[in-house]
Amino acid sequence: MVTTKTKDGGAARWVRPLVRKLHAYVPGEQPKIRGLIKLNTNENPYPPSDRVLEAVRGAVDGRMRLYPNPTAEGLRVKLARLHGCDPAQVIVGNGSDELLAMAVRCFVEPGVAGGGGGRAGSRPSGRQIVQYFDPSYSLYPVLADIHGAVRNAVPLGDDFGLPTVAGLRRGGRWRFDAALTLVTTPNAPSGRGYATAELEGLCRAMRGVVVLDEAYVDFARENAMELALRHPHVLVSRTFSKAYSLCFQRVGYFVGHPDLVGALHKIRDSYNVNGLGQVAAEATLGDLGYYRANFRKVVATRERLASALAAHGFTVSPSDTNFLLVKPAGPSARDWLGLLRERRILVRWFSAPGLDDRLRISIGTDAEADRLLRAVGEVLGKGGKGVRSGRGGGRGS
Ligand code: PMP
Asked: How far, in Å, from the CA of 378 to the mean position of ligand 1?
């Protein structure tokens, strides 16, 4: 048995103070219960294509004793072709989460003893700042804290629109000298898409590195990849997780200037992308037609669900992603979480101020949307009676 208590404060005393104080990122629930409709983690409801599954099966043999290609070279070459750039402008990660963490380590000076938000009263140097909008991807503050960087979270307005450069200057809180600015575009959890022209205006005004986190961009009307190819300080982050039904394999990538990409390669783990993930992602790029048809299905279901929920009295934020952020009618958002769970439907609720009156609903199949709408009708038909407290909350995606 492990001894948990010792006289001198327990084994935790060997852990760095910064790490002891950390709050870990909370991912959405992955329940063991069968038959639940999972609309809580923005996974794609459609499976990987047959060609991808075949390619993965075909790679499961004795070769698994060998290390995979250290830089995912085959995949980088194909991605470079897809985006019209050089393979030296592409780095692949164990999910885009890994690359976001690497960007913090690569571009930001750790400066805060004990971590977490900087010393009160002193103006931190831009070199120590990880900057992002609030709300946006809730991993960013966690990554800043892990690194002992200074967080600068700048609130978005009620419509979650991208502030103008002039507005940010007037507001006084935005740091144009931040070492690293992370912009979720389209945004999460709001779902709001941003025009490339607006993003370019913001990028031009920044003196540090900007990562445009396009995790959901395949469901959007516009993408900003051209900015990573045009501006040396802009990186675009993409993932195979959402639009390409490959969460399980953990493959994401950055595109940007070879000097930035080269620097990231220096701090990468030697074999950061697992072999089957490389195989699956390469096969995915060989079957894009299948995935593009799925994007169209997801977008059509999203639009139908948005109108139907609005007809039930929900306030639905416009979405360019594979999820909807809604302010529900009737019971509180937190209660809706429990009410839907009782009906075997999982959605996401965030306890954060400004978001706690909303639910984030991932777009599933049409049949799942119908089940959700039936459940909503049932709850509202009962006038929200029998409301029980919801579970979950926290942060994450
Ligand atoms: N960015 C955003 C905005 C996300 O919501 C997610 C998924 N949680 C990611 C990046 C990370 O995706 P992955 O690590 O699966 O590539």
From this structure: 33
145 and 116 in contact (C-beta within 8 Å)? yes
Beta bridge partners of 348: 360
Give the domain CATH number at 124: 3.40.640.10
Distance 141 CA to ligand 1 centre (A): 14
Residue 191 beta carbon below 6 angstroms from any ligand 1 atom: no
Residue 21 in domain: no
Asked if 264 and 366 sit in the same domain, the reply is no
Q: Range of 89's domain?
A: 50-286
The answer on 278 and 297 residing in a single domain is no
- In degrees, to the nearest 5, what angle opens at C-alpha 303 toward C-alphas 301 and 304? 65
In the reported structure, the alpha carbon of residue 120 is separated from the centroid of ligand 1 by a whole-number distance in angstroms of 31
Of 393, 396, 344, the closest CA to residue 368 belongs to 344
Quick: pLDDT tens for 237-267: 999 999 999 999 999 999 999 999 999 999 9
Q: Per the structure, how many domains does the chain have?
A: 2
pLDDT tens for residues 303-352?
999 999 999 999 999 999 999 999 999 999 999 999 999 999 999 999 98
Mean pLDDT score across all residues of the chain:
92
Cis peptide before 186 (omega within 30 of 0): yes
Distance CA 177, CA 132 (A): 13
CATH code (residue 307): 3.90.1150.10
Same domain for 191 and 334? no
Q: Is the CB of 133 under 6 A from ligand 1?
A: no
Q: What tokens appear for 284 in the block?
A: 């995915």
Structure confidence by residue, pLDDT tens digits, 379-390? 999 444 433 333
Q: Give the pLDDT band of residue 296 (cuts 50, 70, 90).
A: very high
Q: Which of 79, 96, 187 to mutate to test the pocket of ligand 1 (most atoms within 8 A of CB)?
A: 96
Rounded to two decimals, the pTM is 0.92
Q: Are residues 87 and 200 in the same domain?
A: yes
Task: Work out which ligand 1 atom sits closest to the CA atom of 247.
Answer: 15
Ligand 1 atom having least distance to the Cα of 41: 8
